[in-house]
Specification:
This protein is of the alpha/beta class. It has a single domain, classed as Rossmann fold. It is built from 12 helices and 8 strands. Helix 4 crosses helix 9 and helix 5 packs antiparallel against helix 6. The N and C termini lie far apart (84 Å). About 3% of the residues have low confidence.
C-alpha cells in the first residue's frame, strides 16, 4: 500500500488540529487599534492598560471593573452618572480585553488584582475607594477587597460572578476538558460570542454597543483570555474571599438582574450566608447586561443604598 494516502491523512489531521490556533494567530493585534483609543494607556509591569477618568480630580474615587467579555465601555452610561454624584470615576480594560495588552498564561485572581494594584499605584490612588465590579469584575473586586480591605470605602457588586455554577453546559465541559476543551473552545467560542452579542439587543443593549461587543472576538488574544479566566478566577466559588470581606466590615451592596440567565438569583442566598451584613437589591426586568441595558436603575439602586445608610 502506498504511503501517500496515509501521509495525506496525517497532514490533513495535523492541519485540522492546528486550524483554530492558526486562525487565532492570524487575527489583528490589539496594538493595531490603539490609535482610536478613548482614554490613556498606563505602562504597567503586568502589561499596558487602557484607562479613562470621568468627573473631577479631587473627588472621592470610584473604580469600575468590567466583566469576562465586555471591556470598560460597559460602564459608559454608568460612569458619567456616578461622576454627577460627586465621584472621580476610573474605568479600565482588564488584561486580555479592550485596548489593554493580551498576555498569555493563567488568569487567576492574582492576575487581575496585581493589575489593579499596579494601576492604582501608577495613578497615585492611595485613599479608600468605592469599588464597583460587574460579572467577573465582581469576582476581581471581591478578591481585591479581601486582600486590601483597608483600601475599600464601599464594595458594589453588579450581577456578580463568584458564587459557583457558571458556566454551564458546553462551556463548562470545554473549561474542564483540558487540551481537547481548549481546541474546541478556540474553534467554537468566537461564533458563540458573536451570537450572544446579537441576542443582547433583545435584552435592551443598544445595537451599536452589541455590534462593538461582537467585534471583540476578532482581536488576537481575546478568546484565549476568556478561557483562561473560566479556568482561573471563575472556576471556584469565592466563599473565603467573601467571608474575609465580611469579617473586615467592608460595606457591601449587591445589585442583581431579576431576569439574569447567566448569574441566577439563587446567588442572593449564597451571598447572604457568606456575608450577613451585605445589602442586596434587584433590578426588575433586567438581564445579565444590566449596566448596558438598565444603567439608570443600577445607579438608582446605588443611590438608594447610600440614602438608606444616611450618606446622602
Amino acid at each position: 500500500m502506498s504511503l501517500a494516502p496515509l501521509l495525506w491523512l496525517a497532514g490533513a489531521g495535523g492541519a485540522l488540529a492546528l486550524a483554530p490556533f492558526l486562525r487565532e494567530d492570524m487575527r489583528p493585534k490589539v496594538a493595531e487599534r490603539r490609535g482610536r483609543v478613548p482614554g490613556e494607556i498606563a505602562e504597567l509591569p503586568a502589561g499596558r492598560t487602557r484607562f479613562r477618568w470621568y468627573g473631577e480630580a479631587g473627588d472621592p474615587v470610584a473604580i469600575c471593573i468590567h466583566g469576562l467579555t465586555t471591556p470598560a465601555y460597559v460602564w459608559d452610561a454608568v460612569a458619567p452618572q456616578l461622576a454627577g454624584m460627586g465621584y472621580h470615576v476610573l474605568t479600565y480594560d482588564l488584561l486580555g480585553r479592550g485596548w489593554s495588552d493580551r498576555p498569555g498564561g493563567a488568569q487567576e485572581a492574582g492576575f487581575f488584582t496585581t493589575q489593579l494594584s499596579q494601576l492604582m499605584a501608577a495613578l497615585d490612588i492611595d485613599g479608600p475607594v468605592t469599588l464597583f465590579g460587574y460579572s467577573m469584575g465582581a469576582a476581581v473586586a471581591t478578591a481585591y477587597a479581601a486582600e486590601h480591605p483597608g483600601r475599600i470605602e464601599k464594595l458594589v457588586l453588579v450581577a456578580p460572578a463568584g458564587m459557583g455554577g457558571y458556566p454551564a453546559g458546553l462551556m463548562r465541559w470545554m473549561r474542564d476538558a483540558g487540551w481537547t476543551g481548549r481546541w474546541l473552545f478556540q474553534a467554537l467560542y468566537p461564533g458563540m460570542h458573536r451570537r450572544a452579542a446579537r441576542r443582547a439587543v433583545a435584552e435592551g443593549v443598544p445595537d451599536q454597543v452589541a455590534k462593538r461587543q461582537a467585534g471583540e472576538a476578532l482581536w488576537r488574544g481575546f478568546t484565549p483570555a476568556v478561557l483562561a479566566s473560566l479556568r482561573g478566577i471563575l472556576r471556584d466559588p469565592q466563599e473565603l474571599e467573601h467571608r474575609r470581606v465580611a469579617k473586615a466590615g467592608v460595606p457591601m451592596l449587591t445589585i442583581w438582574a431579576a431576569e439574569d440567565r447567566a448569574i441566577p438569583l439563587e446567588g442572593m442566598g449564597v451571598i447572604s450566608r457568606w456575608n450577613r451584613a451585605s445589602v442586596q437589591k434587584q433590578v426588575a426586568g433586567a438581564g445579565h447586561w444590566l449596566p448596558l441595558s438598565h444603567p439608570d436603575a443600577l445607579v438608582r439602586a446605588f443611590r438608594t443604598w447610600l440614602w438608606e445608610d444616611g450618606e446622602i
